[in-house]
Specification:
single chain, alpha+beta, Cytochrome Bc1 Complex, Chain A, domain 1, 5 domains, 6-stranded mixed sheet, Metalloenz_LuxS/M16, hydrolase, metal ion binding, Insulinase family protein, zinc
């Protein structure tokens, strides 16, 4: 059979292809690094296949050429609703008795239509009560999360989906021996889907809307899109939909949307991973050939009108101010698209673009950048910036426009164009190392209706663009009027909607559909686990006293990565974060700061100084052919960085403004709150440098702190093509010193606060959602407990198929985002931390906390659930081969735990020997009934504080209490 299809690939024999039910429409192109095979089934379904044997898995992305722009004007958010509902199963999957369930599903659909058409609020409330009752009856037969449970049981991960303006994409990754099961599940999923459990899902989608309304970045983005795209759905509709439409959905319209757009000839399946294309297409044809094709509705709404005059809008939100400028450009597939992408990189390539060098490097603004937004119906170029203290948004706007003027006048250096092309090539190679990176490109290209040869040839077309071409394109698009949105510091009150009358759904974990049983009964050849072996998968060499080289061969491409790692961070040396910021703005005695940035970019190299709590890493990466020059530049920065007092003065001012802005930003406030609840006065937000300490810093202080690192023991981590001995020879030059290297200082590991009873620490802040964190200490690190911890994590949380997700989200509709994790310490002498999170509408705070606390202390006991998660863990371990770029990070992490070599084999054996009784023994001794430290950020006006006090001693703190002065 393989031989037959290998012949087809070469000859494209029409008769043989017809027999097979598919045809090869694009053989792998010689210049295609992914060697993509593109097939088309007889029903019009497009299939992209790219082989990648780095790990024994495959990734699936199913793309529909329909997104939020296709929502009806009176039912926005519909495409996104449907995305959620396509996880609920069909008449075979997700139900224990479809015939009985159908009666209630049909009635629920009728009631929602009445609710959709009814204008009287009291009558709508009455209808909703009827929906609630009917939903309870339907739920008797539903099997919530069966799709997710099946994928997880097969060892799948990364189950997700997203709705974009022009496409909707469904994705997951599974073991490579599960292709047949995947095909059976996914082909069924899109056949006769049932919109079951709609009532709780409605509330979940609204919780997602609440989260969006608390996002300052989303708010300004929506504001400028409205200015730029006008009545076109890109500007007038959002993926999440309007509040009014979300609360008055139509299941009939959702069904109509599915029938119109989810047809085989409007969809594509893309697989990347460890399989043979000729075998995979036969499996896909077998299962997906039953999908129906159809006439896809034509998009008839007007295209965005050209911008003929400057338009602006202003929104208010607490904290950092921002300005975004938008120019309308060209849509996808336009002949100017390659040049527009190059222009954006000339502005901002994160290193040596005009904005990077003229604004960020010189600290003329707090921060700035640019990005293109090129969609099927319209394109745009955005520039954004945040002001320094005393700087207006209009001044930042003018500085951004100056950078465009430089391009229009041709005032950019010739070397930058080939460097940008090299950057694109490098990032393409990095993306293709993973299945996710490969499919991201494929799904995007299908959604944008691009021919694959054009996708493969895009970088070549960029190489053909000249400087004169770019000057002409810049003047063509950036000499026109533009739109601008300003986000100013000010009060913001999100819209509020009262919580609905909603009865929780009872979940029976013993139920399983006949369809699920048939999938799990399919036999597959087992994959043998692959654990790391020193000497085979990685090597370690001593370079000198206190210096080691960790080495991994790169089997994929010519890109190297080199890290210099010190076992000390901001907890041990508080000035290091500021030192790293100064070094980023500094040059050397040989090169000014801007020239240094240009030198890195011209080499196709990246450099960064990463500061963690207890680790400091200097990272450099780039092209193997430029390794020597890159290493020389690395050495120059390490030994000859030159700070400047004026640069530091400006840096201090910017950092202090960022610090002040953070005290108004909900996500930062919550981060500080949970650390305060966790550590008290030892919170990193309180032990960080104070305002006075930051103001007192000098260049000598900071450069001196950075230089001090060189006196400590360190390791090099290298991934690349060179033999280890050659790498060692080159690196020894960097480590020559007459001084004896000191061991890393003792880690500063603050102790977690152990409560005697539940305590709630609360910050009153105006948000649409309350953020809730539940935590308690999990004792000192103990390797012998790891198998039990992993089993608990999978049993209790386990992603979308887990107890937490099912009980809090599917059954009670209390949260869009909810998770739990028993977090193991990163160090042998550190403490574990058990944690859970809920993001919930503010008036659901007490209900959510009560339900979650009950779940923690009364974890459901289910032998069916245990059998599923143990099988899932078995499958996960069997495909847990660590990719070559992650090997050294894993080895170092194990070493910090006092483990030499790969500990996963022993953990795996113990997990497989475990049983439900041993899991609950661990749960009862380590988790059940433990006093909780609870952090809550939310608006007091929406929270019943008396009821809240029933769940723990309540302490309200001010924002000033949790940030250092």
């Amino acid at each position: 059979m393989k031989a037959k299809h290998a012949l087809l690939s070469l000859l494209l024999v029409p008769f043989a292809s017809l027999q097979a039910g598919y045809k090869l429409v694009q053989a792998p192109l010689p210049e295609d690094l992914m060697q993509v095979h593109i097939y088309e089934l007889d029903n019009g379904l497009t299939v992209y296949l790219t082989e990648n044997d780095e790990t024994p898995t495959f990734r699936s992305e199913i793309t529909v050429r329909a997104g939020s722009k296709d929502d009806p004007e009176d039912a926005t958010g519909l495409a996104h609703y449907l995305e959620h509902l396509l996880f609920k199963g069909n008449h075979e999957m997700g139900t224990s008795d479809w015939e009985k369930e159908k009666v209630h599903i049909d009635r629920i659909t009728e009631l929602y239509e009445e609710h959709f058409a009814e204008d009287d609020s009291e009558r709508r409330a009455e209808i909703y009560e009827e929906i609630n009752k009917e939903s309870q009856l339907a739920a008797q037969y539903a099997i919530p999360g069966e799709f997710d449970t099946l994928i997880s049981a097969l060892g799948g991960s990364g189950i997700n989906a997203y709705t974009a303006p022009d496409r909707t994409v469904y994705l997951e990754e599974l073991p490579s021996n599960r292709l047949e099961q995947w095909a059976k599940i996914e082909s069924a999923r899109f056949t006769n889907p049932v919109l079951r459990l709609f009532q709780p899902e409605l509330e979940i989608v609204y919780e997602e809307k609440n989260r969006a309304m608390d996002s300052k970045d989303r708010l300004i983005q929506e504001a400028i899109f409205e200015l730029l795209y006008g009545e076109h759905p890109y500007g007038s509709q959002t993926a999440l939909g309007s509040i009014e439409h979300l609360k008055r959905p139509s299941l009939k319209k959702i069904h109509e949307f599915f029938e119109a757009h989810y047809v085989a000839n409007n969809m594509a399946i893309a697989l990347a991973g460890d399989f043979e294309a000729e075998e995979a297409i036969e499996v896909i044809d077998k299962h997906f050939s039953s999908w129906k094709s159809g006439d896809v509705p034509e998009f008839t709404r007007p295209m965005p009108a050209p911008i003929t005059e400057k338009k602006s809008t202003t929104i208010h939100y607490p904290g950092q101010e921002n300005v975004i400028i938008g120019f309308d450009t060209a849509p996808t597939k336009h002949e100017d698209e390659p040049a527009l992408k190059l222009l954006d990189m000339i502005l901002d390539n994160a290193s040596a673009g005009l904005i990077n060098l003229n604004l960020n490097q010189q600290q003329r603004v707090a921060q700035a950048g640019s990005f293109p937004y090129i969609r099927n119906d319209a394109g745009s170029q955005f520039l954004y910036g945040a002001p320094k203290e005393g700087q207006t948004l209009e001044e930042v706007e003018a500085l951004l426009l100056e950078q465009l003027d430089l391009i229009k006048k041709g005032e950019f250096e010739d070397w930058i164009l080939p460097a940008i092309v090299t950057d694109f090539k490098k990032n393409e190679k990095l993306a293709l190392e993973t299945n996710a990176g490969r499919l991201r490109l494929i799904s995007t290209s299908y959604g944008e209706k691009k021919a694959w040869p054009d996708v493969v040839g895009e970088i070549a077309r960029m190489e053909a663009v000249t400087k004169d071409d770019l000057i002409a394109i810049a003047n063509k698009y950036f000499s026109k009027p533009y739109v601008v949105a300003y986000r100013k510091d000010g009060d913001y009150t999100p819209p509020t909607v009262p919580k609905p009358v909603f009865d929780p759904i009872d979940i029976d974990r013993s139920k399983q559909s006949e369809f699920a049983a048939s999938v799990l009964a399919i036999e597959s050849e087992l994959i043998e686990p692959d654990f790391l072996e020193k000497g085979e998968d990685y090597q370690v060499m001593k370079l000198g006293k206190g210096v080691r080289l960790f080495y991994v061969q790169n089997p994929a491409n010519d890109l190297f990565a080199l890290s210099k790692v010190y076992e000390m961070g901001s907890r041990e040396m508080r000035e290091l974060p500021m030192a790293a910021e100064l070094l980023d703005k500094s040059g050397t005695s040989k090169r000014a700061p801007a020239e240094l940035k240009k030198a890195w970019y011209a080499l196709g190299a990246d450099f960064n100084f990463a500061i963690g709590d207890h680790n400091t890493t200097l990272n450099v990466s780039g092209l193997e052919e430029n390794f020597d020059e890159t290493l020389e530049l690395f050495q120059e920065v390490l030994t000859d960085s030159q700070g400047d007092a004026k640069v530091l003065e400006e840096l201090v001012a910017i950092q202090l403004k960022k610090k002040a802005d953070a005290m108004k930003e909900p996500s930062m406030i919550f981060n500080a709150l949970r650390n305060y609840t966790r550590f008290g006065e030892d919170s990193p937000f309180l032990t960080a440098l104070s305002t006075d300490e930051i103001k007192a810093l000098t260049v000598d202080d900071l450069i001196g702190k950075a230089n001090q690192l060189s006196g400590y023991e360190h390791d090099y981590l290298y991934v690349g093509k060179m033999p280890i001995k050659e790498v060692a020879k080159k690196l020894k030059k960097l480590s020559r010193t007459k001084m004896a290297l000191k061991p890393a200082p003792s880690r500063v590991l603050p102790k977690l606060i152990q409560r005697e009873a539940n305590e709630i620490v609360y910050v009153d802040y105006e948000t649409a959602q309350s953020q809730i964190r539940i935590e308690f200490p999990g004792g000192l690190y103990d390797e012998s407990k790891l198998p039990s911890i992993e089993t608990f994590n999978e049993y209790f949380y386990g992603g979308m198929a887990g107890i937490v997700f099912q009980e809090m989200r599917e059954a009670r509709a209390l949260a869009y985002s909810v998770w739990a994790h028993y977090l193991v310490s990163s160090f042998a002498d550190g403490e574990n931390l058990v944690m859970g999170f809920i993001g919930t509408q503010a008036d659901k705070t007490v209900d959510s906390l009560a339900a979650y606390l009950d779940l923690w202390d009364n974890m459901p006991n289910s032998s069916d659930r245990f059998a599923i998660i143990q099988g899932s863990l078995d499958n996960q371990y069997r495909v847990s081969k660590i990719g070559f770029r992650k090997v050294l990070g894993s080895v170092k992490a194990w070493e910090r735990l006092g483990i030499q070599g790969d500990p996963r084999e022993e953990r795996y054996e113990e997990i497989m020997d475990g049983d439900l009784e041993s899991l609950f023994s661990f749960y009862e001794s380590e988790i059940q009934g433990q006093p909780k430290m609870i952090s809550i950020l939310g608006p007091s006006a929406a929270i019943d504080m008396d009821q809240l006090k029933q769940h723990g001693e309540l302490t309200q703190v001010e924002i000033s209490d949790i940030f250092v002065d």
